[in-house]
Amino acid sequence: MDTNKDQWSSRIGFILSSAGAAIGLGAIWKFPYMTGMNGGGAFFLLFIAFTIIIGLPLLIAEFVIGRGAGREAISAYKKLAPKSGWSIIGRWGVFGSFVLLSFYSVVGGWVLLYCLLSIPGLIIKTGADYEQLFGSITANPLWTITGLGLFLIINIIVVSFGIKNGIEKASKVMMPLLFVFFIILVIRSVTFEGASTGLEFFLQPDFSKITGESVLYALGQSFFSLAVGFSVMVTYSSYLGKDVSLPFAAGSVSLMNIFVSLLAGLAIFPVVFSFGLEPTEGPGLLFMVLPEAFAQMPFGEVFLSLFLLLFLFAILTSSFSMLEIITSAFTINKNRSRSKVALIAGIVVFIAGIPAALSSSSMKNVTIFNLTIFDASDFLVSNILLPGGCLLIALFIGIRMDKTLMKQEFSYSNDLSPFIYKLWFQIMRWLVPVTIIIVFLSSTGIL
Questions:
Q1: Using 50, 70 and 90 to split pLDDT, how confident is the model at 3?
Q2: 3-state DSSP assignment of residue 58
Q3: What 3-state DSSP class applies to 140?
Q4: Where are the domains of the chain?
Q5: For residue 371, what is the enclosing H or E element?
Q6: What distance in Å separates the CA atoms of residue 420 and residue 424, rounded to the nearest whole number?
Q7: Is 17 helix (H, G, I), strand (E, B) or coil?
Q8: How close are the terminal C-alpha atoms of the chain, in Å?
Q9: Do 202 and 44 contact (CB within 8 A), yes or no?
Q10: Closest CA to 74 of 303, 270, 327
């Protein structure tokens, strides 16, 4: 089956699906705790700068490559650079997506479990210790592995239906609803007593707290939250028609991503400081803060259930893109059933994700460079594989891709001046690779 016979049905469907692929855990789960652990407002400013200066050009680049080739990640580079080794970028992306999905699905399983517990009212309770609740869930091997499995089953079903009838339909319904409920949460969060301290932490930058490692994390966060570096957006844009402006689509996705990150910070940090929690709690921060916020609202359990459900779908729209790049790589031009490949890929990801799921229980003492398997997987993806993939894509744009095709894809359906294209190309050719190399070398202490 040739997956490229499937197409996005509309421009808004593509943008919302791409935004869904980008937003997910990157903006809602990971951004708040990374910001809390790396200086608050200063980290947020670095994140915005990297998103606009580095992430946005890279997102445009992936769109240009994907639509220009009309193929999924591996085949795209083979078509654009035949009889060369550039297809390693697509293979890098498939491998990176596999690693990312294996631990990403663990967090997705946590959210799914919270959804199921919130429906009968088992989360919000008078005097409840939400930190202890989160710890008890993540320390239970049966629960975490069950959550992992259920989360991947949903992914397999949706990806089996394809682009238009699966991924796009889910994204067009759930992403707008997520924005609405997020804004409701922010309004309640900033009205807590003591919320101003959290707002100052998030919005008032203190650059004395920034280290070389923080800069690398901010760069990695911009890649993680925009879903660039693994050629996921190459695959998504391969299903796109010529009537969509790629710079406009990429700009829309980037702005939505920054906006959701802002909403996440405004929703989380006022509550963190109001209830005396530590902003450096790490990956569990969101699961401890959300119940605290909703517990203060009328019908809090209902609102918590709805938000967790929508949060789950935001996470799913991201994980769909990861499973899609893996599935499409093994179905295109190979006459294989999409549903069977998605099922096999899901099973393999499930097996690979079990060690990460057990990192807070039976395998918590198993470490890699003093990191749990879960944290080591996160570090590998965010700080090595993603920046490495982005560097390879920048080099491909600057060195190998046909410049005529590149300019055509950049210029379709927009009235941007030729200067904008030239500026984008020079940023991709020089600024992006140099920045990635300098930040990486600085973080390792070489510079």
A1: very low
A2: helix
A3: coil
A4: 3-443
A5: strand 371-372
A6: 6
A7: helix
A8: 49
A9: yes
A10: 327
Which residues have a Cβ under 8 Å from the Cβ of 258 and sit 6 or more positions away?
48, 51
Residue with tokens 């920045």: 435
Could you report the per-residue pLDDT of 200-239, keeping only the tens digit for each?
999 988 888 888 888 888 888 888 788 888 988 998 898 8
Contact (Cβ atoms closer than 8 angstroms) between residue 410 and residue 60: yes
Say which amino acid occupies 270.
P
- Rounded Cα distance, 77 and 68, in Å: 10
The residue with greater pLDDT, 349 or 134, is: 349
Three-state SS letters, 185-231: HHHHHCCCCCHHHHHHHHHCCCHHHCCHHHHHHHHHHHHHHHCCCCC
Query: What percent of the chain has a predicted confidence (pLDDT) above 70?
Result: 95
To which H or E segment does residue 258 belong? helix 246-274
pTM assigned to the model: 0.88
Place of tokens 């991924």: 167
Pick the CATH number of 3-443 from 1.10.10, 1.20.1740, 1.20.5, 1.25.40: 1.20.1740
Q: Which of 51, 7, 63, 27 is nearest to 314 (CA)?
A: 27
Report which residue type is found at 211: T
